[in-house]
Design a protein that fits this description.
Elements: H1 6-23, H2 39-63, H3 69-94, H4 102-123
InterPro entries: VanZ-like
Organism: Euzebyella saccharophila
Protein name: VanZ family protein
Length: 133
C-alpha cells in the first residue's frame, strides 16, 4: 500500500510541512551569524518548487495516468500557486507575528513554475529518465 501511494504520501506530507512552517510562529528563534539577504524568498521558492514537482507525480499516481501530462502540469502548477497565495492571505489574516507578502507569493509562484519546468526537462523528450512512475 505504501509503495503504491508513495507520491501521494510525499506530496501530502510536504504540503503539511509547508503549511505548518508558513503559519507557525518563529518569534524568539535566533539564528546567530546567519544574515543572508532575501533568504526567505529562496525558502519560499524551494517550498513551492518541491510542491509542484511532487504534485505532478501525485496527480499521475492518483489519476492512474488517465490525465494527460499537459493537464497534470497545469493542475499541479495552478494548485501550487493558489495554495501559496492562500497561505500568504492566511499569514496576513490569522497570525500576529507573520505578515502576508506579495513578494513571497511571487517567489512561491516562480518556484512552482520552476518545479514544473524541472519535471518537464528531466522526464520528457530524450531524457534518460522515463516519465513512467
Amino acid at each position: 500500500m505504501l509503495k503504491k501511494n508513495k507520491y501521494k504520501i510525499a506530496f501530502i506530507s510536504w504540503m503539511v510541512f509547508v503549511t505548518y512552517s508558513s503559519l507557525s510562529s518563529f518569534e524568539g528563534v535566533d539564528t546567530p551569524g546567519l544574515n543572508i539577504p532575501h533568504l526567505d524568498k529562496a525558502v519560499h521558492f524551494t517550498f513551492y518548487f518541491v510542491a509542484s514537482f511532487l504534485g505532478v507525480f501525485c496527480l499521475r499516481e492518483f489519476s492512474g495516468r488517465a490525465i494527460s501530462k499537459k493537464k497534470v502540469f497545469l493542475i499541479a502548477v495552478l494548485f501550487a500557486i493558489a495554495f501559496g497565495i492562500i497561505i500568504e492571505v492566511l499569514q496576513y489574516a490569522l497570525t500576529t507575528d507573520r505578515q502576508g507578502d506579495v513578494w513571497d507569493a511571487f517567489a512561491n509562484s516562480i518556484g512552482a513554475l520552476a518545479g514544473i519546468m524541472a519535471v518537464k526537462f528531466l522526464f520528457s523528450g530524450n531524457s534518460r529518465l522515463k516519465w513512467e512512475i
